[in-house]
Specification:
Blueprint (H helix, E strand, L loop, with lengths): L4 E17 L2 E15 L2 E7 L12 H12 L11 H7 L7 H19 L3 H5 L5 E3 L2 E3 L5 H14 L3 E5 L6 H10 L4 E5 L9 H4 L10 E2 L7 H9 L5 E3 L6 H9 L5 E4 L1 H4 L2 H13 L4 E3 L6 H10 L34 E3 L12 H6 L1 E8 L3
Helix pairs in contact: 1-3, 5-6, 9-11
Bound molecules: 2-succinylbenzoate and magnesium ion.
2-succinylbenzoate binds next to loops.
C-alpha cells in the first residue's frame, strides 16, 4: 500500500465541561488528526498528544514536528505493508509514541478500507459492544463531585472513575462511596504521589475500589511494587507502561494487578494488542483507557476494547460526554446496559464532518513525498 501524501490537522475542540486532573485543567482539547492518502483512499488517525506536556512529555507541538520532520518522511512514497512494517520503519525514532500511534491508526483505517474489513475484525475483537464507564475530573468540591457522579449514573454509566490529587483524594472518594455504596468505583492519581503519601492514602483501601490507577511517577515501576504490597486494592498502571517490555517488567515485579491499555501511550494499536496478549497469558485483566478522543480515536478504542482480555469497563464514554459537536458524522451513544457499540464499517468505520473539521482547525499542514 503506497502512501502518496498526508495532511496534518492541528485541532482545538471545546469540551462540554472542563476536565481537571492532578496535572492541570483543560477547557478545550487539542489533538492532531492525521490524514493519509493512498491509492485513491483516505485513512484517518488521531494523535492524542495534548496542548501541554502534563500527561507525558509530548504535546501537539512536538507531535507536529516529529510527524512532519521524522515519521512521515519515512513512509511517504513508500509501500507500507501493515502495522508491523510501519513499526519497523519508524523504530529508529526514540519515544514520541503518541505521534507514531496516530499514524499507525491511519494505516489501519486504510488497510480496512482496502480490504472491506472493520478494525475490530482485523485486530481479532470478539465483542459487538463494549462495557464502558465515565472518567470524572476533579470538581469544585466533594459535594459537587457527588452531584456530577449522580448525573452520569442517571445517564446509565455503571462504572465511575474519579481523578484524585493531594488534598483531594480520600475525602472525595469517601463522599462518592457513601452516596453510592454499590457503585463500581475507581480512582486515578496521574502520578501525583510518592511513597511518603502511603499513610495518607491508606483509607482508600477500605472503600471497595476496583483499582487505584497510577499513584506514583511514570518512571517508577519498582516503587509501585512497594505501594502494591501495602494495599489490598489492585494497583493499575497507566503512564508507566510505555511498551510491551514495561508491561512484562511490571508483571514480573508485582508492581500492579491491572493494566490500562492506551494505544497512543504504547506507540500504536499493534503494541496495544501485544500488551493485551501478554496480560492474557499472565492472567492480568486489562481495560481500555481514554484521552478525551474525537470520534476517530473513540472508534479505535472501541475496536481495541473488543478483544477478549478487556474484562474491566473502559474509559470510553458517549460522544456527548465530551463534545457538543464532534469532527465525525457518526456519534457514539450509551446503551442502557452501560455499553457502547463497536463500529462495523471498513477500517475505523467513521466519516469526517468536513465543516466541523474546518471549524476546529488551528493549522493544516499538507505534506508530500520529497523526491
Ligand atoms: O489518565 O486516564 C487518564 C484524560 C486525559 C489524560 C489522561 C487520562 C484521561 C482520562 C479521560 O482519564 C478518559 C476519557 O477519555 O474519558
Ligand atoms: Mg490514567
Amino acid at each position: 500500500m503506497k502512501i502518496d501524501s498526508a495532511v496534518l490537522h492541528h485541532l482545538s475542540m471545546p469540551l462540554v465541561s472542563p476536565f481537571e486532573t492532578s496535572f492541570g485543567r483543560e477547557t478545550d482539547r487539542e489533538c492532531v488528526l492525521i490524514e493519509l492518502r493512498s491509492e485513491g483512499l483516505i485513512g484517518y488517525g488521531e494523535c492524542v498528544a495534548t496542548r501541554d506536556p502534563g500527561y507525558n512529555y509530548e504535546t501537539t507541538g512536538t507531535a507536529m514536528h516529529i510527524l512532519k520532520d521524522f515519521v512521515l518522511p519515512l513512509i511517504l512514497g513508500v509501500d507500507v505493508k501493515d502495522a508491523a512494517d510501519f513499526q519497523m520503519r519508524v523504530s529508529g525514532i526514540r519515544g514520541h509514541h503518541l505521534a507514531k500511534a496516530g499514524v499507525e491508526m491511519a494505516i489501519w483505517d486504510l488497510l480496512g478500507k482496502r480490504s472491506g474489513k472493520s478494525l475490530r475484525e482485523m485486530l481479532g475483537g470478539v465483542r459487538e459492544k463494549v462495557e464502558v464507564g465515565v472518567s470524572i475530573g476533579i470538581q469544585e468540591s466533594a459535594q459537587g463531585l457527588v452531584r456530577t457522579a449522580a448525573d452520569f449514573i442517571e445517564q446509565g454509566y455503571a462504572r465511575v472513575k474519579i481523578k484524585i490529587k493531594p488534598g483531594r483524594d480520600v475525602e472525595d472518594a469517601v463522599a462518592v462511596r457513601n452516596a453510592f455504596p454499590n457503585l463500581r468505583l475507581q480512582v486515578d492519581a496521574n502520578s501525583a504521589y510518592s511513597m511518603s503519601d502511603v499513610p495518607a492514602l491508606k483509607p482508600l483501601d477500605k472503600l471497595n475500589l476496583l483499582l487505584i490507577e497510577q499513584p506514583l511517577f511514570e518512571d517508577d515501576i519498582w516503587d509501585h511494587h512497594k505501594f502494591q504490597e501495602q494495599f489490598d486494592t489492585p494497583v493499575c498502571l497507566d503512564e508507566s507502561i510505555l511498551s510491551p517490555r514495561h508491561a512484562r517488567y511490571a508483571i514480573e515485579m508485582n508492581a500492579c494487578r491491572v493494566i490500562n491499555i492506551k494505544a497512543g501511550r504504547l506507540g500504536g494499536l499493534s503494541q496495544g494488542v501485544m500488551v493485551h496478549d501478554l496480560c492474557l497469558e499472565r492472567s492480568l485483566p486489562v481495560w481500555c483507557g481514554g484521552m478525551l478522543e474525537t470520534g476517530i480515536g473513540r472508534a479505535s478504542n472501541l475496536a481495541l476494547a473488543s478483544l477478549p482480555n478487556f474484562v474491566l469497563p473502559g474509559d470510553v464514554s458517549a460522544s456527548d460526554r465530551y463534545y457538543a459537536r464532534d469532527i465525525t458524522n457518526e456519534r457514539f451513544v450509551l446503551n442502557p446496559d452501560s455499553t457502547i457499540d463497536v463500529p462495523t464499517g471498513p477500517g475505523l468505520g467513521m466519516t469526517i464532518d468536513q465543516e466541523a473539521l474546518k471549524l476546529f482547525t488551528l493549522n493544516e499542514l499538507p505534506i508530500v513525498a520529497s523526491s
